[in-house]
Amino acid sequence: MEINVLVVDDSSVMRAMISKTMGLSGLPLGKIYQAANGQEGLEVLSGHWIDLIIVDINMPVMNGEEMIDRVRANPELKDISIIIISTEGSDARIDRLRRKGAAFIHKPFTPETIRDTVKDIMNLGGSDAGTD
Ligand SMILES: [Mg+2]
After folding, report:
1. Tens of pLDDT along 3-21?
2. Domains in the chain, ordered, with CATH?
3. From ligand 1's centre to the CA of 103, what distance in Å?
4. Considering the entire predicted model, what is its pTM?
5. Beta pairing class for 3-8 and 81-86
6. Residue 52 Cα, ligand 1 centroid: separation in angstroms?
7. 31 C-alpha to center of ligand 1: Å?
8. Per-residue pLDDT tens over the stretch 30-76
């Protein structure tokens, strides 16, 4: 299994950092797509098969929470794995997003945190994950 990833963040620096981290993670990656806000993210999702979305919360045009709501409301997209990476500090908001089936990582983060969270939510085990 190869994981196609969509990285959605209004910071190009953060998108590059997350993409690089994924590349170094040892995870079986397919393509990594990028989008600068939720609206662009939905456009990528309408045209490409994506297995994992890594999304910021605070973005112009469409924020991460609205994007997640749109994804979860779409029968063809609703089961996609989602990880939120944000500086968001509100426990109420984080709880609400977790109930929508998203994992949460605080900025700043380490590459290991991203890797371990991806393995966890996608049920990927050790180095032999996906060999059968
Ligand atoms: Mg942002």
Report:
1. 999 999 999 999 999 999 8
2. 3-121 (3.40.50.2300)
3. 17
4. 0.90
5. unpaired
6. 19
7. 22
8. 999 999 999 999 999 999 999 999 999 999 999 999 999 999 999 99
